[in-house]
Amino acid sequence: MSRTPSNMLPLGTIAPGFNLPDTVTDKMVSLDQIKGVNGTLIMFICNHCPFVKHVNSTITQLATNYQAQGIAFIAISSNDVVNYPQDAPELMKQTALLERYSFPYLFDETQAVAKAYEAACTPDFYLFDKNLRLVYRGQLDDSRPGNGIPSTGLDLRNAFEALLNNEPINPVQKPSIGCNIKWK
Hints:
The chain contains 5 helices and 10 strands. By secondary structure, the protein is of the alpha+beta class. A 5-stranded mixed β-sheet has the order 6-5-4-8-9. The model has no long low-confidence stretch (mean pLDDT 96).
């Protein structure tokens, strides 16, 4: 299990646009169509990564809590499915249904979106404000598979709360750690 950190895209970066297939609905969706009125969380995840599996329930719970407050959640898998067939779109759909994702799970076949976001690992989290300016990037919380720390989503939850309350978000942010994106 690799331990690859986030690249930490500069705060203030405008979210790169995209138009990707949603593996659950089989429809193409753009960032502009699915962005949130108060903010947008873009997550690079995949099916097989033990780091993602470890936090899937926390992600789902955060989505339940914050989508109602105008934060859009968007998951993207950019892994090479030729060498990692367990991350193929039809299996992404199965994972989304099994994990009860209430958000789109998009497939970035060309890996262009992951490159535009400088995504490095799964999971990798990017929170943008209502104007699609990056306000938080990094870890969900301090929990990792096997470290005995429960996954609460504390770091991301603090960023959501600050964003929703128009308070400053702490610029000292820890990189996420996870499996590297499986590049072609």
